[in-house]
Amino acid sequence: MKSLLFLVLISVCWAEPHPDNSSLEHERIIHIQENGPRLLVVAEQAKIFSHRGGNVTLPCKFYHEHTSTAGSGTHKIRIKWTKLTSDYLKEVDVFVAMGHHRKSYGNYQGRVFLRESSENDASLIITNIMLEDYGRYKCEVIEGLEDDTAVVALNLEGVVFPYSPRLGRYNLNFHEAQQACLDQDSVIASFDQLYDAWRSGLDWCNAGWLSDGSVQYPITKPREPCGGKNTVPGVRNYGFWDKDKSRYDVFCFTSNFNGRFYYLIHPTKLTYDEAVQACLKDGAQIAKVGQIFAAWKLLGYDRCDAGWLADGSVRYPISRPRKRCSPNEAAVRFVGFPDKKHKLYGVYCFRAYN
């Protein structure tokens, strides 16, 4: 009986509100949500389009709800920009500002600045855009106990292309796939980039890595070897695979370039080594796969002559389909990986502008 009475008394004491605690909790809620305007961060545009080598402004402004002032004046405003990774597992620091202090990070150093066109402008300017800059950016503004964020997507004009090395189909783990794209003047493509390419007509039956670690492929013409002829067109998803052990092809993305892509006029056909030297002698380098795709897609480059590229493949770009030169479609035609020492072809060169 005493035990029961003791428990009842504990329950009653626990149920009674403590006036001091209630007051503290009430004041805390009023301080954040009711005393003074709420901080809001807004991006005027959700998507911004640019290209490699260009400059861009990612819009972001902050203000207090129900007022026209940028800040309360009692706390310093802290502005932080980060980039969201394609798998959304982490954020990469880009730029931070507080008062007169400014700091940029990684390969953004020297390329990012605040626009500061007004007191409430937190927009970020990125100069000399790189392929790696593509993605979603978060603008975060912090004032005292208040903060808010907005997200802006930076899209690049470019082209997605499937890639497999000389070893053949399905020979790249994820890390090798990333490097393969970099070696060909490109980066591993995102799902959004592959989806846009599919909507533009890209049809490819081999599955390839994407930047989020998934393996997918785009089909515009359903057929038996590619999921069955009765399936609907779309981007087929193999799911997420072991980045170290699983092996597939890769989808790469490249944008325009700061240079000249051209077919070298030479009196004779060349072996691979002779092709490399011929470009060097002409003040250029043998072109990369990403460069022939960018020239074809973005500049309309058209040439029916097959030529060596840096990875040892032989290809040629056709923008105007015609007899004996890709009669059915505009494409970068793939001849293969011929014997470098004995097979003779022309060569495509690339000369970078200073």
UniProtKB/TrEMBL annotation:
Domain Ig-like span(s) in chain numbering: 37-155
Compartment(s) of residence: Secreted, Extracellular space, Extracellular matrix
Molecular function (Gene Ontology), one example: hyaluronic acid binding
Superkingdom of this protein's organism: Eukaryota
Disulfide bonds: C205-C226, C304-C325
Keywords for the protein's UniProt record, in alphabetical order: Disulfide bond, Extracellular matrix, Glycoprotein, Hyaluronic acid, Immunoglobulin domain, Repeat, Secreted, Signal
Signal peptide span: 1-15
GO cellular component, one term: perineuronal net
Entry keyword Cytoplasm: no
SMART domains membership: IG, IGv, LINK
Gene Ontology BP terms: cell adhesion; central nervous system development; glial cell differentiation; positive regulation of neuroblast proliferation; skeletal system development
Predominant localisation class: secreted
Repeat in keyword set: yes
PANTHER family cross-referenced by the UniProt entry: AGGRECAN/VERSICAN PROTEOGLYCAN (PTHR22804), HYALURONAN AND PROTEOGLYCAN LINK PROTEIN 1 (PTHR22804:SF10)
Homology family: Belongs to the HAPLN family.
Protein's recorded name: Hyaluronan and proteoglycan link protein 1
Source organism (scientific name): Leptosomus discolor (Madagascar cuckoo roller)
